[in-house]
TrEMBL record:
Keyword field: Oxidoreductase
Protein's name according to its UniProt entry: NAD(P)-dependent dehydrogenase (Short-subunit alcohol dehydrogenase family)
Any Pfam family matching the protein: adh_short_C2
Domain of life where this protein originates: Bacteria
GO terms for MF: oxidoreductase activity
Species name: Ancylomarina subtilis
UniProt KW Oxidoreductase keyword: yes
Family assignment from sequence similarity: Belongs to the short-chain dehydrogenases/reductases (SDR) family.
Length: 240
């Protein structure tokens, strides 16, 4: 039975790293994308190769803010690994700024990486791979109107709409769904109780960690009748 292949953007760190470890354990071969985290990506590749010698793990460097580079990523992965069965648009940049404080450079960066790059990769996945599953990582902020991360939040709102638009256009051969986490991993330099403080305001009252996100991914992959859906994996944070 052919091993299935997944491309995970931003796979070297944080949630992307956890997604890679999880899928590798389930016998997936992986295209591990990174931009600047070369050392972490290589270390992850070597670790997975040692654990799962019968699977294929290759790293691909791409600056997702570079349109031309982004347009070549799906074809490069396909040439190296063959059919891509799963595309996970995980990579993103997350920069705080209100509407008043958002300059052109900031909004362009957030939109290019968080929205335009997934758009290009989804388009090329549909045109080149022609079948499979796409999972877009969103954010519980798409349900809110807070402007403290204005450009970031708007880029994720656009991606959520693209998720459902893609599901409508690409079906039945390609299913497209989204996962909208809440606070899962604390930002760099955050206070020790950052996650607990945020979780205390939600219905579930405690951080969920990475496992609910991995379970959401499994649900999307395994449910062949699921498309155009956004799973809020946030302990109910979207309700407040």
């Amino acid at each position: 039975m052919k091993t299935k292949t997944a491309l995970i953007t931003g796979s070297a760190k944080r949630i992307g790293n956890e997604l890679a470890l999880h899928l590798a354990k389930q016998s997936w071969s992986l295209a591990l994308h990174y931009n600047t985290s070369k050392g972490e990506a290589m270390a992850l590749r070597d670790y997975l190769k040692a654990l799962y010698p019968n699977q294929v793990f290759k790293v691909f460097c791409c600056d997702l803010s570079d349109e031309l580079a982004c347009e070549s990523l799906i074809s490069e992965v396909s040439e190296e690994l063959g059919q891509i069965d799963l595309l996970i648009n995980n990579a993103s940049v997350f920069t705080p700024a209100s509407i008043r404080d958002t300059g052109l450079d900031l909004i362009n960066e957030q939109m290019n990486i968080n929205f335009k790059a997934p758009f290009i990769l989804m388009r090329d996945f549909a045109n080149i791979c022609k079948r499979g599953v796409i999972v877009n990582f969103l954010d519980t902020r798409i349900s809110k109107y807070a402007s403290d991360y204005a450009a970031y939040s708007l880029s994720k709102v656009a991606l959520s709409h693209l998720t459902q638009m893609g599901a409508l256009e690409f079906g039945p051969d390609i299913r497209v769904n989204g996962i909208a986490p809440g606070s899962t991993i604390a930002p760099p330099n955050a206070a020790a109780n950052y996650l607990e403080d945020r979780a205390a305001k939600t219905p579930m009252k405690e951080p969920g960690g990475i496992q609910p996100i991995l379970k959401s991914l499994d649900y999307i992959i395994d449910n062949n009748f699921l498309t155009g859906q956004i799973l809020y994996c946030d302990g109910g944070e979207q309700l407040i």
